Amino acid sequence: MIEVRGRRRGVTDVPTWLRRDGPVDPIAVLSVARQVAAHLSEGPAGAGGRAAARRLRWLLGVHAVGLAGLSGTVEWSGRPVDEAAALELAAAAPHSEKFTGKPGLAAVPLIVDHEVTGVLVVDGPSAGKAVREAAWLVENALERRHGEYTTVADEFEAIETYLVLQRAVMGERLQVQIRVVPDVLAVPLPYLVLQPLVENAIRHGLEPLGRGGTVQVQGEARNGDCVISVEDDGVGMAPAEVAALLAGKATGRVGLSNVDRRLRTAYGPWYGLVVETERDAGTRVLVRVPLSQPGVLPS
Ligand SMILES: Nc1ncnc2c1ncn2[C@@H]1O[C@H](COP(=O)(O)OP(=O)(O)OP(=O)(O)O)[C@@H](O)[C@H]1O
Ligand SMILES: [Mg+2]
Predict the structure, then answer these.
(1) Nearest CA to ligand 1 atom 3
(2) How far, in Å, from the CA of 209 to the mean position of ligand 1?
(3) Ligand 1: does its nearest atom lie under 6 Å from the Cβ of 173?
């Protein structure tokens, strides 16, 4: 069990309830927690609700997970054994403090900024314990939606933590170079922009090589923008494949397109991701954000 301590508790921390039977790959858990956060960017009842529920079900190892917004409809992943009881519980949960029903079934309100924003329902062994811990993860993701910006400094800190974990798994095979100029440390950045890119560099770039390699992350100021590059000397990709990914044509692969979309939404089309790659030639992904962003305050 690896415990990560950061400056504040965020979705990249490994929660204590992951002491499930058998070995748990902390990297897989971090990755899934990050995906849950991304899928919840439109709230518990948003378009990503079902995908978030599916990943939570995997994390918890339970029969079914349901996510409901305030309108009452529940997005299920899996089927609760007693669906009527589960729905009844979901309907009751916003009005009561942490509410636990029959054995195997539990529902809790999702409270963000002191307000109920939805309900989480879990059906499975140890549902009562699992639901509270999962609620923490979901509330954390929803809370971050309110404060959407962090700083370059915080994102670099988060990826350093991530890379320390990765080195624990891969050892010397993973070489890491992180460099950031002080001028850009305070620049606001939408949260969790870099981690998915670093994760890709290792998982898709270096791991298939078998022999390891180098990941470089660099941040600097260039022509009025803050430019951050994430580079690996791994297997690379066919440029056409990247174009299809960024066009959102690959289902179930949310990392790149999600980061790209969030950057464009925040700053305009000029600020989409730039991916430089070729098969067998490694990959460099460039993130650009304006150096000065009036009105944006990191939370
Ligand atoms: N640095 C890289 N080197 C080689 N291939 C990459 C790299 N980054 C991404 N890819 C390829 O692009 C695909 C899409 O990446 P993306 O992050 O969007 O989805 P994913 O990693 O498959 O899933 P997830 O949604 O968990 O991130 C990957 O499956 C991989 O084939
Ligand atoms: Mg990815």
Answers:
(1) 205
(2) 15
(3) no
User: Which ligand is the nearest neighbour of the Cα of 206?
Assistant: 1
CATH 3.30.450 fits 16-146, yes or no: yes
The strand ranges marked E within the chain are 64-68, 74-77, 99-100, 105-112, 115-123, 149-151, 174-180, 188-190, 213-222, 225-232, 274-277, 283-290
Residue nearest to atom 31 of ligand 1 (CA): 204
Q: What's the whole-model pTM score?
A: 0.65
Q: What is the token pair recorded at 25? A: 């790959």
Which residue's CA is the closest to the ligand 1 atom numbered 14? 253
Distance 239 CA to ligand 1 centre (A): 13
Pairing mode, strands 174-180 and 225-232 = unpaired
Segments making up each domain of the chain, as ranges: 16-146, 149-290
Residue-wise pLDDT for 281-296, tens only, equals: 999 999 999 998 777 7
Average pLDDT, integer, range 200-223: 94
Q: Which CATH superfamily is domain 149-290 in?
A: Histidine kinase-like ATPase, C-terminal domain (3.30.565.10)
Residue 74 pairs in a beta bridge with 68
| Residues 235-272: tens digit of each pLDDT | 999 999 998 888 877 777 778 988 898 899 888 888 98
CA of 283 to the centre of ligand 2 (A): 13
- pLDDT grade for 78, boundaries at 50, 70 and 90: very high
